[in-house]
Amino acid sequence: QxxxxxxxxxxxxxxxxxxxxxxxxxxxxxxxxMGWFRxxxxxxxxxxxxxxRGGGSTYYADSVKGRFTISRDNDKNTxxxxxxxxxxxxxxxxxxxxxxxxxxxxxxxADEYDYWGQGTQVTVSS
Length: 126
Description:
mainly beta; 11 strands; 48% strand; seven-stranded mixed beta sheet; four-stranded antiparallel beta sheet
């Protein structure tokens, strides 16, 4: 069992930056590929970024590529999402998720993930 707790959300003006963090419980954090998803009001949850167990591989949705960076620290059981050049359309609840995975696997489908955090709100205003 893995428990995930996101933090770092808030309100920011367009063009600004935020850094989201996700703290995981348990001693097997390094066994999980991690992902960030987001859900805007009235829309389905969508993939944003993912990272492999060791952090050597990452993948981004086209909508965030070049602006967001996912990273992880397996010693601290954390995964982060650095968000720069934020746009109005980045407004959403952001969720981190964990998936049991092979060493280099990355998943972009929510169905592949086994554990989810409660979400943190990010609001971008003009």
